[in-house]
């Protein structure tokens, strides 16, 4: 077995734990929201307003699937549709105030539970994990989490919606 296979197995095992943490955190805050719906709201919260096609691309789903998710999230008050400020002709999707609140609360719960898990790890193994996970998330294109203010880093100032 190669290093890549060993690492892949380890990441798959860790991902089961992280999905469980995510599901518990979400259920404690908003039991009607699914993990894929939360993922969409997190993307909108962290990256700012987006067109439907860009959002579908990021989620790796068909635009029709993304549209149905958006419709449900608009109905539940998690996202809003707004005029694209760059073109004034198109519609973009944005996280609503309620959506941002849910993301913030879910992330705070996730952070607390992950912190308890990390605290149980041997200290000498923690430092290498930071570097490895940072490289992993960078390779996957995931926005970084800021522990300083317990909110996802905002890319709104850099985001283009046209």
Looking at this protein, list some descriptive labels.
two-stranded antiparallel ribbon, two-stranded antiparallel sheet, Arc Repressor Mutant, subunit A, mainly alpha, 162 residues
What layout of secondary structure does this protein have?
Blueprint: H1 3-29, H2 35-47, H3 52-59, H4 63-75, E1 79-83, E2 91-95, H5 97-119, H6 123-140, E3 145-146, E4 151-152
Antiparallel strand pairs: 1-2, 3-4
Helix pairs in contact: 1-5, 3-4
General description of the model:
The protein has one domain: Winged helix-like DNA-binding domain superfamily/Winged helix DNA-binding domain (Arc Repressor Mutant, subunit A, Orthogonal Bundle). It has helices at residues 3-29, 35-47, 52-59, 63-75, 97-119, 123-140; strands at 79-83, 91-95, 145-146, 151-152. Strand 3 (145-146) and strand 4 form a beta hairpin. Helix content is 63%, strand content 9%. Helix 1 (3-29) crosses helix 5 and helix 3 (52-59) crosses helix 4. The longest helix is centred in the N-terminal third of the chain and has 27 residues, at 3-29. The strands form 2 sheets. The chain has a two-stranded antiparallel ribbon. A two-stranded antiparallel sheet has the order 3-4. The protein is mainly α. Residues 145-162 have a biased composition (Basic and acidic residues). Residues 4-138 form the HTH marR-type domain. This is MarR family transcriptional regulator. It comes from Lentzea aerocolonigenes (Lechevalieria aerocolonigenes).
State the low-pLDDT regions, or none: 150-162
Order of helices and strands: HHHHEEHHEE
Biggest sheet details? 2 strands, antiparallel
Provide the CATH topology.
Arc Repressor Mutant, subunit A
Q: Any idea what the radius of gyration is?
A: 17 Å
